[in-house]
Specification:
alpha/beta, TIM Barrel, M1 Pyruvate Kinase, Domain 3, 8-stranded parallel β-barrel
């Protein structure tokens, strides 16, 4: 019954059907398939297990395919890892061959094309920092700013630079085709630098799944509102952001991204290292519990578990702990004033006016639930943007919509038949609210829908009904 959702990543520790069902029953709402790891058949088995859970429980399950994105890496070293000293000169080259203490191959011409003197290169998640002294289309001579050891195929980041590279590699395109064939509900796009990356993905996906932009590059933050407006959902990839930006900037960026998503009515996931110590410990640190709580207070739609559930020793406990933190925050008397104080004004449309009115009416009459009838999900998204006191019941005849809306804050999705008579719709809303445990006899519900029925985005009716 929590409003904030939990995203759980599946992996070696959570691949068997019994464990996957246990995670769902423990409170996981959305399941992430990480295409950076595992073979396609591994993901197919997990997907099939999730759809079996859906059939057994009668509840829609949302599945998110997370694409790997471009991985920029150095080449190999002839004599093993090389320790770089501060002030030392070191050369990155397009030319092939094993590296040594003075040079290494960097097989990415896009980096050399974008690099200029004075810019930094980060190696191994920022553990080693170098500054370019001279550059060309085939090499970069650098000075070591932060000393450290470089070994084979370590990752490279170029902070503050928009690289002339697509967010979709050949591997991503193959993985995307496979994920869409499976029938995933969301696709998370890595390495987003600009709105064009979202447009490219949407052109390939053609509405078969929602696009979730992973914000992990500083260049994406420079065009934040454009990206949020164009995408269907956002993931705050704090680990990657923290590599290219100072750690002290990440918390404020998290709040800025969440605010932008709430303003545009886009679901937002806060991710990375939320309960990191629970990979090997049955309980989190108090700081981690506070971190999860902060995301909930910010109004994030979902919080995500990565290695905690994919490869950790306590995946079930991690989901249960996250659920307890969410529930405790949402019971806090200060939570509701925070939600009410920080949400966008409705747009000057009939649909937004009706949705905002529904939230206000529901609060005034203490309605047990707000019931939204939707085809595309837009009516439910508008309701979730208001962050109402009452839970949101999303009724739709579209299976894909029911699954996709599971990600949204405060929503409980139920598949329903299509209606042509409004009174029948009201009767169904009352019956579902009662059957799903949201309303008791004598309580009221607020209903929003659009007429003519089945027209996406045409929310134009608000009705109060008694159970």
């Amino acid at each position: 019954m929590c409003a904030t959702k939990i995203v759980a990543t599946l992996g070696p520790a959570t691949s068997d059907p019994a464990t996957i069902e246990a995670l769902f029953r423990a409170g996981a709402d959305v399941f992430r398939l990480n295409f950076s790891h595992g073979a396609p058949e591994d993901h197919r088995k997990r997907y099939d297990a999730l759809r079996d859970v859906e059939k057994r429980t009668g509840r829609p399950v949302a599945i998110l395919a997370d694409l790997q994105g471009p991985k920029l890496r150095v080449g190999t070293f002839k004599d093993g890892p090389v320790k770089l000293q501060k002030g030392q000169k070191f050369r990155f080259e397009l030319a092939k061959g094993d590296g040594n203490a003075d040079r290494v191959t960097l097989p990415h011409p896009e980096i050399f094309a974008a690099l200029s003197p004075g810019q930094d290169l980060l190696v191994d998640d920022g553990r080693v920092r170098l500054r370019a002294l001279e550059t060309s289309l085939e090499h970069a001579l650098c000075e070591v700013i932060v000393a450290g050891t470089i070994s084979d195929r370590k990752g490279v980041n170029v902070p503050g630079t928009v690289l002339p590279i697509s967010a979709l590699t050949d591997k991503d395109r193959r993985d995307l085709a496979f994920a869409l064939e499976l029938g995933v509900d969301w696709v998370a796009l890595s390495f987003v630098q600009r709105p064009d990356d979202i447009a490219e993905a949407k052109k390939l996906i053609q509405g078969r799944a929602g696009v979730c932009a992973k914000l992990e590059k500083p260049s994406a933050i420079d065009r934040l509102d454009e990206i949020v407006e164009l995408t269907d959902a956002v993931m705050v990839a704090r680990g990657d952001l923290g590599v290219e930006m100072p750690p002290e900037d990440v918390p404020t960026l998290q709040k800025r991204i969440v605010r932008s998503c709430r303003r545009f009515g886009r679901p937002v996931i806060v991710a990375t290292q939320m309960l990191d110590s629970m990979i090997h410990s049955p309980t989190p640190t108090r700081a981690e519990a506070s971190d999860v709580a902060t995301a909930v207070y910010d109004g994030a739609d979902a919080v995500m578990l990565s290695a905690e559930t994919a490869s950790g020793d306590y995946p079930l406990e991690a989901v249960e702990m996250m659920g307890r933190i969410i529930a405790r925050v949402e019971r806090d008397p200060s939570y509701r004033p925070i939600m009410d104080a920080d949400h966008a004004k409705p747009e000057a449309t009939a649909s937004d006016a009706i949705t905002a009115a529904a939230a206000q009416v529901a609060a005034t009459i203490k309605a047990a639930a707000i019931v939204t009838f939707t085809t595309s999900g837009s009516t439910t998204l508008r309701a979730a943007r208001e962050r109402p006191e009452a839970p949101i019941l999303c009724l739709t005849q579209n299976t894909r919509t029911a699954r996709r809306m599971v990600l949204c804050w405060g929503t409980h999705c139920v598949e329903s038949e299509e209606f042509s008579v409004f009174d029948h719709m009201v009767e169904k809303a009352v019956a579902v609210a009662k059957a799903e445990g949201f309303a008791d006899p004598g309580e009221t519900i607020a209903i929003t829908a659009g007429v003519p029925f089945g027209t996406p985005g045409a929310t134009n009716i608000l009705r109060i009904a008694w159970v």
